[in-house]
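Continuing the series of single-chain predictions for the mutant panel. This is the parent chain; the variants come on the following pages.
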Amino acid sequence: MDVRLKAGFALTGSFCTFDNVIPIMKQLVENGYDITPIFSEFAYETDTRFGKAADFAESLKQITGNTVIHTITQAEPIGPYDLFDVLVIAPCTGNTLGKLNCGITDTSVTMAAKAHLRNEKPLLIAVSTNDALGASSKNIGGLLTCRNVYFVPMKQDSPDSKPRSVVADFSKIPEAIALALQGKQLQPVYL
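Parent structure:
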């Protein structure tokens, strides 16, 4: 019988952090996790100066051995089929934070979160947004109060040049997963 932890791992459009997040996903796979990668439609289709979308998708397929979920239709069965023990959104943009906080389900990632949360299992969010201490702060605050929603520790990444920008400490994802599975929040904010 397969007793590996099943995790969804969703990436949204903070492309500059993909190179920091993908090694964490690889580490989780090496530690025995069964990871299913999920991309927002925007992340799945957009080539940027940080890399080609198709290359990222293929890399995650190779690392995890699983097909990438990238549409609302593909994400919807996550709930009814109880596919994951935990769902991680890393990086989670300000746009996705706002949609999650307001219950908007119009992307593959927000559908994955909604479908997963119906099973009363943990959703772990790793913030990466330039307006976390601005417009997105109310959404972070709202989500901090939601049952089964947890955050990876986060801090300002460049206080002088981007005073409202916050990025999660992606290296803390494994520890944050372990605690979220116990119903505990790892200290969410670094000072």
